[in-house]
UniProtKB/TrEMBL annotation:
Keyword Repeat: no
Catalytic activity, EC: 1.1.1.141, 1.1.1.232
Molecular function GO labels: 15-hydroxyicosatetraenoate dehydrogenase activity; 15-hydroxyprostaglandin dehydrogenase (NAD+) activity
GO cellular component terms, A-Z: cytoplasm
Pfam families on file: adh_short (PF00106)
Gene3D superfamilies linked: NAD(P)-binding Rossmann-like Domain
PANTHER family referenced in this protein's UniProt entry, alphabetically: 15-HYDROXYPROSTAGLANDIN DEHYDROGENASE [NAD(+)]
Reactions it catalyzes: resolvin D2 + NAD(+) = 7-oxoresolvin D2 + NADH + H(+); prostaglandin E2 + NAD(+) = 15-oxoprostaglandin E2 + NADH + H(+); resolvin D1 + NAD(+) = 17-oxoresolvin D1 + NADH + H(+); lipoxin A4 + NAD(+) = 15-oxo-(5S,6R)-dihydroxy-(7E,9E,11Z,13E)-eicosatetraenoate + NADH + H(+)
This protein's name: 15-hydroxyprostaglandin dehydrogenase [NAD(+)]
Length: 265
C-alpha cells in the first residue's frame, strides 16, 4: 500500500518509535491521528509536526490504551476526522517487570483491542475498504529473555495473535493484512529501563549487538506497509542484519499432533 493520501491511526506516538513512524508516514503524504497517555508530550509533538507538515494532516488525541473506553474513543476520533482508517499501527508499549498486569494490559491487551477495532472498521466483507494492521512486537517476542519474562510473554502474545488472524480462512474477504514488527534494541526512552532482572545482561547484550536508530526501524515499518504480499509477515530488524522477513512454517512432525514452528529467513 502506498501511504500517500492514506489515513493512519497509531498508538503511543508522542515519542520514540511511534513518533518516528508518524514522521515517516507524514513525509510520504499520509494523514495521521496518534494517541498517547503522555498528554504534554503528545501536544508538543503534535504542534511540532503540524508546523512541519501542516495543521490538517496530523492530530493528537490523549488516551490510555489500557482503558477500553479511551482506546475506542481515540480510534473513533480518527474515523470521524478521516472517515476511514487504512493503516492501524498498535505501537504503544512499556517494559516494567514489577507490574506484569500493566505490561500485559498495554503490550498485549491493547494490541488485541486495537486490532479488533481496526478489523471491524476495515473489513471489506462488512462494507470497509480493507487495510493494514501493524502490530509492534520485539525480537523478545521471538526469543527467550530472562531479564524481562513478562515483557517477553507480552510480545510472544502479539506475534501469536497477529499471525493467527493472518491465517484466518476469511482473510481474503476481509482484505486486511496483518503484520508484526520485531525490532532489536533501539535508541528510545525504553532502553533507559531499570525495572528488569539482571540489568548487567542488558549492558552485555547492547555491547554485543549495538543499538539501532528509530529512523532505521521506522523505515522497516514503511516496508511492511508498502509490500503488498506480506500478510502474516514477521519482520525482524537488527543492527547487523537489517530488516529480514522470518518465514514461519508449522511443521507436523509425526502426522498426528507433534506440531513444531520453524522459522527461516
Ligand atoms: N526501544 C526498544 O529497544 C524496543 C522497543 N520495542 C517496542 O516498540 C514500541 C515503542 O516503544 P519505544 O518507542 O521504544 O518506547 P518509548 O517509551 O520511547 O515510547 C512509547 C510511547 O508509548 C506511550 N504509552 C505507553 N503506555 C501507553 C498507554 N497505556 N496508552 C497510550 N500510550 C502509551 C508512551 O507514553 C510513549 O510515548 C513498544 O511496543 C516497545 O515494546 C520493540 C523492540 C525494541
Ligand atoms: C533482547 C533485547 C532486545 C529487546 C528489545 C526490546 O523490545 C526492548 C528493549 C528495552 C530494554 C532492554 C531490556 C531488556 C533486555 C535485557 C537483556 C537482554 C539479554 C538477552 C540475552 O542476552 O539473550
Amino acid at each position: 500500500m502506498d501511504p500517500q493520501g492514506k489515513s493512519v491511526f497509531l498508538t503511543g506516538g508522542a515519542q520514540g518509535l511511534g513518533r518516528g513512524i508518524v514522521e515517516k508516514l507524514l513525509s510520504l503524504g499520509a494523514k495521521v491521528l496518534f494517541c498517547d497517555v503522555d498528554v504534554e508530550r503528545g501536544k508538543a509533538t503534535e504542534s511540532e509536526l503540524q508546523t512541519q507538515y501542516g495543521a490538517d494532516v496530523v492530530f493528537f488525541h490523549p488516551a490510555d490504551v489500557s482503558d477500553d473506553e479511551q482506546h475506542k474513543a481515540a480510534f473513533g476520533m480518527a474515523v470521524s476526522k478521516f472517515e476511514t482508517v487504512d493503516i492501524c499501527v498498535n505501537n504503544a508499549g512499556i517494559l516494567n517487570e514489577s507490574n506484569w498486569e500493566k505490561v500485559m494490559a498495554i503490550n498485549a491487551g491493547a494490541v488485541i483491542r486495537g486490532s479488533l477495532l481496526a478489523l471491524e472498521h476495515m473489513r471489506r466483507d462488512r462494507g470497509g475498504r480493507g487495510g493494514v494492521i501493524i502490530n509492534v512486537a520485539s525480537i523478545a517476542g521471538l526469543n527467550v529473555n530472562p531479564a524481562c519474562p513478562t515483557y517477553c510473554a507480552s510480545k510472544h502474545a502479539v506475534i501469536g495473535f497477529t499471525t493467527s488472524w493472518a491465517m484466518s480462512p476469511g482473510q481474503k474477504d476481509h482484505a486486511v493484512r496483518w503484520c508484526c514488527l520485531c525490532p532489536d534494541a533501539m535508541e528510545t526512552s525504553m532502553l533507559k529501563v531499570t525495572d528488569i532482572h539482571y540489568p548487567e545482561m542488558l549492558e552485555e547484550y547492547l555491547k554485543d549487538n549495538g543499538v539501532m536508530s528509530v529512523s532505521q526501524v521506522a523505515d522497516a515499518v514503511m516496508k511492511l506497509i508498502q509490500d503488498p504480499d506480506n500478510n502474516g509477515a514477521i519482520l525482524e530488524v537488527t543492527l547487523k542484519k537489517g530488516a529480514r522477513y522470518r518465514r514461519r512454517q508449522v511443521v507436523d512432525r509425526d502426522g498426528v499432533n507433534d506440531l513444531v514452528i520453524m522459522d527461516t529467513y
